[in-house]
Specification:
Layout (H helix, E strand, L loop, with lengths): L5 H27 L9 H18 L4 H27 L1 H7 L4 E5 L2 E2 L1 H7 L3 H10 L8 E6 L5 E5 L15
Helix pairs in contact: 1-2, 1-3, 2-3, 3-4
Length: about 170
Amino acid sequence: MFFDDIILDIASRALVLSTIGVAWVVVLIRIVGLRTLSKMTNFDFVITLATGSLLAGLVQATAWTGFFQALLAMAALIFLQFLLARLRRSSDRIEAAIQNGPMFLMYDGEFIEEALEVSRVAKSDVLAKLRESNALEMGKVRAVVLETTGDVSVLHGDRLDERVVEGIERP
């Protein structure tokens, strides 16, 4: 792409293409916003992974066509994410169709067996999350929520403000 000498060409491609690729990602994020790299939904997570994969492919391009295809694919994915985020905000129907809702795995210190079974989460995984969040007493665990992103949130303390669990179906 740059030089006839293989070593010099590989080194220059690595430097130039990675610089252009990272700059391109930064430009796209500046245009679309920081939500681009968020993990708020499963779709966001997939876009973040795909963008990283495309960046890796772009840096290893041996021809300009592959390089530009990766640049355009990144822009297309990020635009699609932007479009879907707007559609989700404007329509509850679209939101429900493409997004799983959060789910209680525990409520008021008690495991919810049906939720554990449906989500395929083991009690030992929930207990590990409890330890990780410094929950010291099962009786003070107000809720454990499997979020739409796959993350697990542990809510513990003396009381639970209902606004925090708004939109989560009750056990």
